[in-house]
């Protein structure tokens, strides 16, 4: 009989990969897994109770907050507060960092940046949504942790992952030693290893972008879209266009099947729209660990300077060869875009 490996068992077995952590990182990952189960339960019954729709508020991004957004935010902060391993939570739904001042968290070593419910505009439509998280070790050694502890480059992450709430619920994460996926078995209430050592194909035939904004895209992006649509049997073109509108769902599909997800700058969002700290950086870490590539069209995402909590970025992420081709066209047709990004 094939052995079933639960998320908890897997984390314990891999704990020796982090001798400096003394188990805190393992417990932190388990806390996130527990909160994900609670959020999954509510997502699955969202149509039966009063947690669908807007709550009449907006977050710091100026985006309408869904009731389930706030519920997910509360659950993850509660789980991270009770565990004692996290001193700060940086969330999309919170204007400022959330300091955890409990006695057990006073000397905590870790910071968690999180998008509690990515793709929440799809909640009312029963389309896959997700959670994205990123974990850093705090840099300051004395006193309360500060915002500067959060504003670290993506290369400094010690772990990152996402949970996708879809036809099945999966948690995918990396600690810098490959990517592993766990599917929630509702019969036992456990995440079980289902996708060990995940690898994204070097090439793909699916491109994912909101083509409704085509007129506002940089020329390099427009050229890449046209490249994807040209018939060329040798490269399996034309490619298929698939856009869900949930970053987690679109990138998860890319990891499984190969593909590219692009959210470029536009005339209305000259610095890009996807948040660097708790969306781009964790997803870039995961994709690179799976053998893919992630950039803003010109520079590696994980090398970008982080200057503010809710900083935005363009993102080109997915199968290595597809991203390289998109970057080639950005360099050829959108050099002025590169200068604008550097200036900002």
Task: Describe what you observe in this structure.
The protein has helices at residues 7-13, 24-44, 67-83, 147-150, 219-229, 247-257, 276-289, 320-333, 335-343, and strands spanning 54-58, 64-66, 86-91, 98-99, 110-118, 129-137, 159-165, 169-174, 179-185, 190-195, 206-208, 240-241, 260-263, 274-275, 293-295, 312-313, 315-318. With 344 residues, the protein is of the alpha+beta class. It folds into 2 domains: 7-195, Fructose-1,6-Bisphosphatase, Chain A, domain 1 (2-Layer Sandwich); 206-343, D-Maltodextrin-Binding Protein, domain 2 (3-Layer(aba) Sandwich). Helix 5 crosses helix 8 and helix 8 crosses helix 9 (335-343). The longest helix is centred in the N-terminal third of the chain and has 21 residues, at 24-44.
The CATH topology of the largest domain corresponds to Fructose-1,6-Bisphosphatase, Chain A, domain 1
Low-confidence stretches: none
User: How many beta-strand elements?
Assistant: 17
State the end-to-end CA separation: 57 Å
What number of structural domains do the residues give?
A: 2
Structural class: alpha+beta
Short description:
The chain has 344 residues and is of the alpha+beta class.
Keywords:
Fructose-1,6-Bisphosphatase, Chain A, domain 1, single chain, globular, 9 helices, 344 residues, D-Maltodextrin-Binding Protein, domain 2, eight-stranded mixed sheet, five-stranded mixed sheet, alpha+beta
């Amino acid at each position: 009989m094939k052995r079933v490996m639960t998320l908890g068992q897997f984390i314990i077995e891999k704990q020796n990969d982090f001798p400096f952590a003394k188990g805190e990182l393992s417990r932190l990952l388990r806390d996130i897994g527990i909160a994900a189960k609670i959020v999954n339960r509510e997502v699955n019954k969202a149509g039966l109770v009063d947690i669908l729709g807007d709550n009449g508020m907006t977050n710091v991004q100026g985006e309408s907050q869904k009731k389930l957004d706030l519920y997910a935010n509360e659950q993850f902060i509660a789980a991270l507060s009770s565990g004692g391993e996290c001193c700060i939570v940086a969330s999309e739904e919170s204007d400022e960092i959330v300091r955890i001042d409990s006695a057990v968290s006073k000397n905590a070593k870790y910071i968690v940046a999180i998008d509690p419910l990515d793709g929440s505009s799809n909640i009312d439509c029963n389309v896959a949504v997700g959670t994205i998280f990123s974990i850093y070790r705090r840099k300051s050694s004395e006193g309360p942790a500060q915002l500067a502890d959060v504003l670290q480059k993506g290369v400094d992450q010690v772990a990152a992952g996402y949970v996708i709430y879809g036809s099945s619920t999966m948690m995918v994460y990396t600690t810098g030693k490959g990517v592993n996926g766990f599917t929630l078995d509702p019969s036992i209430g456990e995440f079980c290893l289902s996708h060990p050592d995940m690898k994204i194909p070097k090439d793909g035939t699916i491109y994912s972008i909101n083509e409704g904004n085509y007129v506002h895209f940089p020329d390099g992006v427009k050229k890449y879209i046209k490249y994807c649509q040209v018939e060329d049997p040798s490269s399996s073109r034309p490619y298929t266009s698939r856009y869900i509108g949930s970053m987690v769902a679109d990138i998860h599909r890319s990891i499984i099947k190969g593909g590219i997800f692009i959210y470029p700058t536009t005339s209305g969002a000259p610095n890009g729209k996807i948040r660097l700290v708790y969306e781009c950086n964790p997803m870039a870490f995961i994709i690179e660990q799976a053998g893919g590539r992630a950039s803003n069209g010109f520079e590696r995402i994980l090398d970008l300077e982080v200057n503010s909590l809710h900083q935005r970025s363009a993102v080109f992420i997915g199968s290595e060869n597809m991203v390289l081709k998109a970057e080639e066209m950005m360099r050829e047709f959108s050099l002025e875009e590169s200068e604008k990004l550097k200036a900002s």
